[in-house]
Specification:
This protein has 5 helices and 6 strands, in the order H-E-E-E-E-H-E-E-H-H-H. By secondary structure, it is of the alpha+beta class.
Length: about 150
């Protein structure tokens, strides 16, 4: 796939399926912010000038992903520890990109209040289980595919 709009539409579609997600254009009409309870976890350039998007990520996982994939690097115009830029059509498979989008959502929610987590997942413990399961799925995918 080389049409960036197809990639953008797919990331937005996946994000819409997540509980409590909202969409804003806080930086003008060309930058879509995908958020959970007002906190950004994904930024996409809608003008298609850039062929990547930014995702929030656990710092240790960020380092591992940047080592595995040339299409994942420190977040452009973002905190380099907590954000990655991910090429739409790079060497990171779409299946993993979807996992990373989910991880970005959960990573952001992890920093919110217990009340917020409970509102979306029934309990803080249920959220913690979901978060740990997601990290495990990503690690297993990387081990299975790249080791």
């Amino acid at each position: 796939m080389n049409d960036l709009q197809v990639y953008i539409d797919e990331i937005v579609r996946k994000a819409k399926s997540m509980k409590g997600v909202s969409f804003r254009l806080p930086y003008g009409p060309d930058v879509l912010s995908i958020e959970i309870i007002g906190k950004q976890f994904c930024l996409i350039d809608l003008s298609k000038k850039w062929d990547f998007y930014n995702l929030k990520c656990q710092p240790e996982l960020s380092e591992k992903l940047r080592w595995y994939f040339s299409g994942i690097r420190p977040g452009f115009h973002m905190n380099k520890t907590h954000w990655n830029s991910v090429d739409f059509d790079g060497d990171c498979p779409m299946a993993l990109q979807y996992m990373l989008l989910r991880h970005a959502y959960l990573q952001t929610l992890k920093g919110l209040t217990k009340k917020d987590k409970t509102a979306l997942y029934g309990s803080s413990e249920a959220f913690d289980t979901k978060y740990e399961k997601q990290l495990s799925e990503i690690s297993k995918f990387l081990e299975k595919t790249y080791l």
